[in-house]
Amino acid sequence: AAMTKAGDHVVAARALFGSCLYVLEDVLARFGVQVTLVDGLDMQAWAEAITPQTRLVFFESISNPTLEVIDIAQVSALAHAVGAYVVVDNVFSTPVYSKAIELGVDVVIYSATKHIDGQGRGLGGVILGTKDVIRGIIEPFMKHTGGAMSPFNAWMMVKSLETLELRVRAQVETANALAEALLHRKDLERVIYPGLKTHPQFALTQAQMGAGGTVMALDVGSKERAFRFMNALEIILISNNLGDSKSIITHPATTTHQRLPQAQKDLLGITSGLLRFSVGLESARDLEADLMAALDASGVEA
Ligand SMILES: Cc1ncc(COP(=O)(O)O)c(C=O)c1O
């Protein structure tokens, strides 16, 4: 909102966290900003949607919850050709593995509630960009609209930066091992993890980040089985956070993305059996045993 005015045009990827979609489709529209949503993987769609009126381009570098990986350099080049800003929500890429600025992004956003805090204690966010953007555009808006973090939360987040890299690297290592293990299960419809060779943007992920992140998605086939599976887990918690030291599982269709109409869920692959799994710092062996036991216990419908 700080970077747009009435009459501006914004192009965004369609696969976004529910609240970001709300800001784009409901809030910005009320203030006369025109928003075009595109399939973030389709470079032709970006090229057609971005026009000389486009002020800003926005996307999640890895989308929530189906983990599509968007080509940052290509989209940035298209946006910069018309003088538009590129703003990226980089939560799933994590601050540790991101190369977003080097790849051409103007403004990088993190929900600090995720990996940065890493312990589910406080809400916060980070906006990174050039001095012109931060001092000239973001800071006056934030100062006058009150979006400020409490000093205690700020202190906590800064303390957490001390262990951020160690935590995230360990979580990524475990995520790789668990994704490989899940891939062998015949009773899963899909295992989506950008660090797996089976991921459609595996090569791009390697070039853009060098690792697949701490979150994966699995489709167990139905909502009933998803709920049985989640309830059978003993170590992994049911919650909506991610990037935490505790492993967390979420059912996007009924929580984070429940607001989306069915047609949009279908378009984004948010099926009733889809689960988002954020890998924490527990022992990889214990987590694998928990996942496998709960999958066995949850059964498959005939
Ligand atoms: C990709 C992404 N961006 C932003 C947010 C919002 O974060 P916060 O809860 O800190 O407002 C979330 C939360 O789930 C998210 O997944």
Q: In words, what does this structure look like?
A:
By secondary structure, this protein is an alpha/beta fold. It has two domains: 9-151, Type I PLP-dependent aspartate aminotransferase-like (Major domain) (Aspartate Aminotransferase, domain 2); 163-298, Aspartate Aminotransferase, domain 1, CATH 3.90.1150.10. It has helices at residues 18-30, 43-49, 72-81, 94-97, 131-145, 151-183, 202-208, 223-232, 262-268, 284-298, and strands at 9-13, 34-38, 54-60, 85-89, 107-111, 125-129, 190-192, 215-219, 237-238, 248-250, 274-278. It has a six-stranded mixed β-sheet with strand order 2-1-3-4-5-6, sandwiched between helices. Strands 7-8-11-10-9 form a five-stranded mixed β-sheet, covered by helices on one side. Strand 3, helix 3 and strand 4 form a beta-alpha-beta unit. Helix 6 (151-183) packs across helix 10 (284-298) and helix 8 packs across helix 10 (284-298). It starts with 8 loop residues before the first strand and ends with a helix. The model has no long low-confidence stretch (mean pLDDT 95). Pyridoxal-5'-phosphate binds at residues 17, 60, 64, 89, 91, 111, 113, 123, 125.
